[in-house]
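Batch job 17 of 40 flagged for manual review because the log was empty.
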Amino acid sequence: MALDYFFTPRSIAVLGASNDSMKLGYEVFKNLKEYGDKVYPVNIKDEEVQGVKAYKNVKDIPDEVDLAVIIVPKRFVKQSVIDCGEKGVKGIIVITAGFGEIGAEGKKEEKELVEIAHKYGMRIIGPNCVGIMNTHNRMNASFVMNAVKGSVAFISQSGALGAGIVYKTIKENIGFSKFISVGNMADVDFADLMEALADDEESKAIALYIEGVKDGKRFMEVAKRVSKKKPIIALKAGKSESGARAASSHTGSLAGSYAIYDAAFNQSGILVANSIDEMLSMARAFTQPLPKGKNVAIMTNAGGPGVLTADAIDKHGLKLANLEEETMRKLREFLPPMAAVKNPVDMIASARGEDYYKTAKLLLEDPNVDMLIAICVVPTFAGMTPTEHAEGVIRAMKEVNNGKPVLGLFMAGYVSEKAKEVLEKEGIPAYERPEDVGIAAYALAKFSEINEE
């Protein structure tokens, strides 16, 4: 993967690593210690940092250094970049703030950092960022807690918001493959990262939180190329005039008219999210194959969620599949008389795991069905286990194995947690709200449509 020295470095130096738990340099080095013994602290005062031998200068490190994380006071950043260049470092993450986001003088200093880096053949992520992480090798070059390992690469222009989303996903057990806080994008930008992630097998989808881009033409060119092979989901901040002004002052980048961005996203094959929840719901869906069409089958053990989900898919231009008569006949053979065998299929509350297996199997085999949404309000009665319904759906998906996507909607709060974990382990994204599974189904269908163009 391009820029691999950022995500799979053989060795890392932390300039500004600290023993003071009140400093960010403490958190960054503490996180990176998990990566292995090729992480070197640079500290001009202390002989050791967190029990590891420290060096006064990056150039004193006896090993080659692929990646350097700079978290020193701003007045020392320029010399630190020069030192890294002379050491032969390949990539630099500048966490230190106070550059382009504060005005003209800061932009001038920021430009100088990039010129120095390029002189030595280095690339910079930042400045004014919280760092990056690769969950698949436990490399956390940030001061943020480790994200859950997953399949979504998340690039955020806001460090604090990005960190907040990581914490949200930890609570909800949603996984990221990569987390990249780009900060001011003085050098490495969205286009560079999309290009790098295009062939990353660990990342099934790319999610972007965008305030503004600096080279719109290149952004579109790269996005158009990458979106043919991998879904890109964008959440654009600054839709309103007030929001656009706030975005411009935040990272020093031009927010621009939202209408222009919206048109650019559509022309580039980027899927547009309108909220953080939408962005995450859409991105998570791509652990499943793409549907051949827009016809959705819904199965449920409760009528209300089935109706709400039907509303949710209809809102996004998807359709309830017209089931074959033979499918409905076979459903009647084992479901109770009061069950509804038309789509949505309401198996009623007494449905067990075996009923979920038989129903999912029939719906996946129906030629009119392009996609299946399996709903369960996880029951706590009649001796039912919290996972049997999920296990029934998984069994059917594996047995039929015809490439039709399956999405889960398991709605019982903490009672559903075990079942959702079982589904996620098998690559079936499990949601909690009808609107979330609806936008996920839309994302799969829309990306399939983009790929056919």
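Reviewer: the log was empty due to a logging misconfiguration, but the result itself is present. Residues 289-452 form a domain with the Rossmann fold fold (CATH 3.40.50.261). Unflagging and moving on to job 18.
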